Amino acid sequence: MNSKLKDLNVEFLFQAVLSLKTMEDCYNFFDDLCTVSELKALSQRLQVAKMLDERKVYSDIVAATGASTATISRVNRSLNYGSDGYRTVFDRMAADK
Prior knowledge:
Mean pLDDT: 95
Shape: globular
Order of helices and strands: HHHHHH
Number of strands: 0
Structural class: mainly alpha
Low-confidence stretches: none
Number of helices: 6
Strand content: under 5%
Radius of gyration: 15 Å
Distance between the termini: 27 Å
């Protein structure tokens, strides 16, 4: 884990997210926690990561998500050199299907 992230407030946030059980719980919690723009930015990054993982090219990702090439590059860097958080989520979501 990135040591810059690790503190009690972040852990409390993660515990809260882990306590969510339904899609409605998620909608309600994130509606309270985030602005629409913040939530759209987070969901956009996740979609970019999914498309990169599917080997889509930048131009297709820009067209589909509206993400900037800088955002796509940052997400790509995380996919390739990060903490494998995206990989964990994608693998678990695939296993749940």
